Amino acid sequence: MKQSLYNVETYDNLKVYEAVCKIMADQNVAQDLRPDMKVVIKPNLIMGKNPSHPTTTHPTVIRAVAKWLHEQGVDNVILAESSGGLYDHNAMRNVYHQCKVDELTDVLTLNDNFEATHVHSPEGFKCHSFHLINPIVEADYIINICKLKTHAMTMYSGGIKNLFGTIPGLEKPQMHYMFPNLHDFSNMLVELSQVVKPDLTIIDAIDAMEGNGPTGGDSHPLHMLLGARDHYTQDWFAAGLMKIEPMDVEMIKIAKEKGLVHEDEIELLGDEIPDNLTAFKIPDAAQVDFSSHVPGFLRKPFLAIAKKLFRSYPAVDKSKCVGCAKCAESCPAHIIKIENKKAIFTKKGCISCFCCQEMCPMKAIYVKKRF
Ligand code: SF4
Ligand code: SF4
Description:
The protein is of the alpha/beta class.
């Protein structure tokens, strides 16, 4: 498995472009391309946010990839994403604008087809089908460009998790409701990733996010771009760069158990791993599985008690809340009300998915532990 790693200090157009060209050469991408192909770039535009925050894929990285594709003779390059919240023309135009990807129309087309199609999964999958946004279904080639971040529910967000944005708009919170526990949700993410099958995954880790990701955390730059065809093994590798034990990340653990992660076969291309990397702060709500330290026969009762004791819930800092209702819109359990321009939460029915925290533009939602 060829893993590219290039040190890139800042989002300088030329430096980013040079690194992207090296990744494309390492991964032999040019050999896959034909001029008549429809190539879809799937970035992380989880919400409308200025790219100076480490929340979304930086437009400089997207520009470099699209420019490189044009130089290979591929002109049909589409940027497609389903952010949190509504998936329609107005909502996505707003996201495109805030994330500054509407400045890239000289090298790509912004998706404006907001339909979705049911795609059947291979036999044996727990999720028999997925409802996917049309540009992904119709793509000849998919380049997944994610942002390296911590994540309140899944702890880590990279290549696998980025593909959750191929599910249209408010169907994403519904998926949380269908798969309320971390294991089932993570298994769904891995199965989704096996259905979408990106051809290449680039991780924007020039700036990355630690703490209360995927939207409310802080900057923790790694000053690097990563690239690989095998995004499962790359997620293993990238979690290690954040000093997160990959097997503590449920989706990576599941991918490993399915035989999708080949960490022993990593061939590092490009620059060396810097020796001064520091650990990323993990989210307040992250669920760490201590059960591996408990004897097998005690594991089940231990997990049942630990689940209750260490359960996290969202709470609102009313001084920051502006009553925008983004949290209520994204809550799959419909337990958030807006009264007097403030969000009111009830614990009953909460599945601790933290979609509300993810979508709050004011960082007004924090994590309360029961114990
Ligand atoms: S908690 Fe955040 S998302 Fe919810 S209404 Fe207040 S500001 Fe908006
Ligand atoms: S209140 Fe927040 S954490 Fe609880 S179910 Fe709703 S979105 Fe998920």
